[in-house]
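Submission checklist for the structure archive. All mandatory fields must be present; incomplete records are returned to the submitter.

[x] Identifier: Inosine-5-monophosphate dehydrogenase
[x] Organism: Amylibacter marinus
[x] Residue count: 171
[x] Sequence attached
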Amino acid sequence: MPTSYQSPMRQDQQGQNTKSQSVELYDHNATVADLLDGKGRDVFSIKPEDTLKDAVVELRDRRVGALIVTDDSGALVGILSERDIVRKLADSPGQTLPQSVGSVMTKKVKVCGPSDLAIDVLKRMTEGRFRHLPVIENDQLIGMVTIGDAIHHRLTQLEHEALQMKQLIVG
């Protein structure tokens, strides 16, 4: 006599989850080093005694939104962003470009390290309302990450996750 079909019971499948059901796709451990690996470690700098005109030309030519300000030994002494220049333009219209970078730059620079988590750095930049963060390792400037770098990295991860999900579904 043939046996009739019985649908599986919950207890029949306990402990039999497949790997695809338990895969964690998001890399919560992405670091600043990962961001730098994706974008490069070029750092564009300027001296405090240079003029804002010099800085504006450098920003335009390099197509960046901020410059690291370094002393003669290469040590970080500040950061100059487009926002710093715009604020100064509003305060002293027509007299801004001849002023020195050192008089306008942000002197208390927030920094991060290569082992800092990318998500933590993104939160710091968002909460602090700044878009550029120099990366320091062993007291040496090794790069700069931007909020755009962090977002680009995350979007790339999301695209990869979507592709993995599609492959899991399609087989």
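[x] Structure attached
Curator remark: The helical segments are 19-22, 32-39, 52-62, 82-91, 118-128, 147-170. The chain has a mean pLDDT of 84.
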